[in-house]
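go over this chain:
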Amino acid sequence: MNDNQNSIISKLKLDNVKKKRIKPKGKKRLSRSWQGDLFIGILLIGFGLFSAYPLVFTIANAFKPLDEIFLFPPQLFPRNFTFENFTDLFNLIGNTRIPISRYFYNTLFITVFGVSGHVLFGALAAYPLAKQKFPGKALINQLIVYSLMFSSLVTVVPNYLVISWLGLIDTPWSIIITSWGFTLGLFLMRQFMVTIPTELLEAARIDGAGEYRIFFKVVMPLVKPAWLTVIILLFQQLWSTDGGAFIFTENLKPLSFALQQIVAGGIARTGASAAVALLMLIVPITVFIISQTKIIDTMAHSGIK
């Protein structure tokens, strides 16, 4: 070997040594002591207990005798566990002119058709607002955002005028149709649809899929977290509705109204009122827990990678 070859080999060896010494660049991992982990854990537990206190208190109140409900300062857990509040409530329900099953059916009918209708029509409206081009699109999106700033009380009179013009006053559809215009759900689904790559939709069109097939087979599965969240929010709202100024006939009233009338008998029915509060919470909380698990799982496994 000549001197040039030796110098080249030595340079290559030196470069390899330098490359081994140089650490690859990446994100710095912040080290945290066990004291820091313990502090964060205690802080999260404290916030969790603070958030769970109203729910635990509501559940415990339903099983307290009447004298313990009026204790001050209030006790979190009952000293004498009892089911008298539920017994009194069922006795009051049995004395009503209309069976409680009728009220339950009215609430279930309003909730199911209101939630399913809004998810369908809201998603159909959100799709063109997110992925199509047409005149006035930006204005409509701005109006939807502005509508989120207004309280529901502001729209009571316009809603009543529209429902009255449609001839739907004193029918369950007066509440169902107004729930289809739930702008928060429309906004959430539109925001999720914006994140869907346009290339994915174009590929489906090249394969021969029509717009409705793309919507139901491609778009809706990808925005599942959005419409599951909408189901939770709207279900809680419709489940607790009392009919408002739209329903007047007694046998068309929802369950919430019936229970409010039953426990509106003064202090003597405070125990029954606590039982009503628990019964009205059971179904929404159950739906929330089930849907929350699906939302977390969907967010972890759906989308484009």
Observations:
- The CA atoms of residues 64 and 78 lie 5 Å apart.
- Confidence is low (pLDDT under 50) at residues 301-305.
